[in-house]
Amino acid sequence: MRIAYLDCASGISGDMTLGALVDAGVELATVQAGIDSLGLPSCRLVVQETKKCGFRATQLTVEHEPEHKHRHLHHIEAMIAGSVLTERQRELALRIFGKLAEAEAKVHGTTIQKVHFHEVGAVDSIADIVGSAIAWDLLGVERIVCSPVPTGTGFVQIAHGRCSIPAPATGELLRGVPLADFAAEGELTTPTGAAIVAALVDEFGPLPAMTVQRIGYGAGQKDFQHPNLLRLLVGETAADRTAAAATSDTIVLLETNLDDATGEAIGHATELLWRAGALDVATTPLAMKKNRPGVLLAVQCRPADAEPLAAIVFRETTALGLRRSTLERMTLPRRSVSVETKYGAVAGVVSTLPDGSERFSPEYDACAKLAAAKSLPLETVQQAARQAFAAS
């Protein structure tokens, strides 16, 4: 299995993450093309080699025109929806922004829809988050492991005033994340970095057994008396790749039966659950008491996401209770690819079966968009994508 390990010895931020991903070999031009499609004011990713306490690293800076604009979540979602990002890249970016919105709403006592992004709604933060989502997809890892995270000490000045470290949103995002004891003065982990960790990391702990293939170093903007670096190690687990087996992890299943909720309410709740990081959301028709037609709403999620997702179900539906169970899940290794057909490029996912063979599934949205642009049947584009993968 291809995995990545985030060594957060000096915390984590959005620019450190993207810098480490580029340093590990992700193509900057591809990331820049995705950023360009967001419609932001002139925004350019600039990388240069730097040194932190004698250690080399990639320093990433977002250069853009000055702006004095704050955004809500729906503004950012519209940018991402209108971009050229693949479905997987959109999902990763929306998951990170969803985590940020939940944290901001919690600390300011408002709703996700009304939360007002300040620092994380600025051009550089949007570029860091969306760029990181693109880069993680291009890196093609199937699992992300992370070290305990230090936050730093002291105070930080934000849009709402002077706050102790970790900043309120950062602290909320790091719920359930193991923190490291490192009393450096200053902010080591930012809300953007914490959101990336909360949204994407599968497991926390020491460096797992792996064969390291690439190492990337992302430099923080500040200088400390220690190397302000994020190290990213990418490689394969000890298991033989040619005999790849399904991997197991633990998930939570939330279920409730609804017989007095409208279709609109259930559809809205389902959309919010996906946006908040659910692994799967499904509805099944039921015959309930008093001969009422009903719906079984089932949500699969990571254990750390169970409480926030349960809160969405209680808030957005008529549910009075939820059944919660912990399950062992088996998943196949997978990676994102793009194949070139005679109609254009099509994104898809390749899964590796236990016998080592591979199965390609073209992304529906990519095929539907191309089919509409070329006035072709959907199946024609899907079949062309499968043939292109088989011939590659």
Describe what is shown at a glance.
By secondary structure, the chain is α+β, with helices and mostly antiparallel strands. It has helices spanning 14-23, 28-36, 73-81, 87-108, 123-139, 168-173, 191-200, 263-275, 306-316, 364-374, 378-391, and strands at 2-7, 43-52, 55-64, 71-72, 116-117, 143-146, 152-153, 155-158, 161-164, 186-187, 203-204, 210-219, 229-237, 247-258, 280-287, 293-301, 323-331, 334-341, 344-352, 358-362.
Task: Give your account of this protein's structure.
By secondary structure, the protein is of the alpha+beta class. The protein has three domains: 2-238, no CATH class; 247-331, Alpha-Beta Plaits (2-Layer Sandwich), CATH 3.30.70; 334-391, no CATH class. 34% of the residues lie in helices and 32% in strands. It has eleven helices and 20 strands. The chain has helices at residues 14-23, 28-36, 73-81, 87-108, 123-139, 168-173, 191-200, 263-275, 306-316, 364-374, 378-391; strands spanning 2-7, 43-52, 55-64, 71-72, 116-117, 143-146, 152-153, 155-158, 161-164, 186-187, 203-204, 210-219, 229-237, 247-258, 280-287, 293-301, 323-331, 334-341, 344-352, 358-362. The longest helix has 22 residues, at 87-108. InterPro entries: Ni_insertion. This is Putative nickel insertion protein.
